[in-house]
Design goal:
This protein is α/β, with parallel strands linked by helices. It has helices at 18-29, 42-56, 69-83, 106-134, 165-184, 207-214, 225-237, and strands at residues 9-12, 33-38, 59-63, 88-91, 147-152, 189-196, 244-248. Helix content is 42%, strand content 14%.
Amino acid sequence: MSAPSRVRTVLVTGSAKRLGREIALVLAAGGWQVAVHYRGSKADATKTVADCEALAGASNAFDADLADEAAVRTLLPRVVAHFGRVDAVVNSASTFEHDSAASFGFAAMEAHWRSNTGAPILLAQALYEHVKARGADPAAQGQAATGVVVNLLDQKLWNPNPDFLSYTLSKAALASANTLLAMALAPQLRVVGVAPGLTLPSHLMSQAQFEALHRLSPLGRSSTAADVAATVKFALENASITGTTLLVDGGQHLMPLTQDFSMM
């Protein structure tokens, strides 16, 4: 792939810490200007911005509650107002709380669907309108301008178990949205999914449990944050990929489990 003729800007949701931060840093190292989204982790977001600036020269933090539709609808316009344009959105932020078929209720379902499904769709919608309003990119010699949305999914969708019911349903809906949005928003947008395996310890497991479960895959290791971030970068920069999902899990989706990793 040839080097871009101008600096590109990406909004990464949930990028103050954990996997979102790793994605932000890898993209900044690749020359992207990064809009760091956070909800309550202002200090972490400030550090991520500083680290991105040291790599790419431009970054800024933007707070928003992704469960609040009004806040989501203003997020991308705020990023555009700061940077002048946005080329991509990476939907990394995610609500991950346990429920089951026995404990399922509308409140848990709505909480997960708002942040994990509704927010990514609204951000894709906003990016589409922004790219469409920009019109043809002079650097592309008259070709239609394009943007990219990358949605973080979960290998759990290809290896289902009944734990974390509302979370799983919200990610399954987002996986379907990948296909639908790729069809509806082309050629202005490409829409790509990236589905990690067990990548970082959750609040429900110890480090020792994580390390043992991380090895539970055909390749003897699941995904690392660096693996996932590199795949997100690849999806953003490969102009021929849309409407599909890249599984990055060491093959964990090939090993059926009766429980989620966090419950083992």
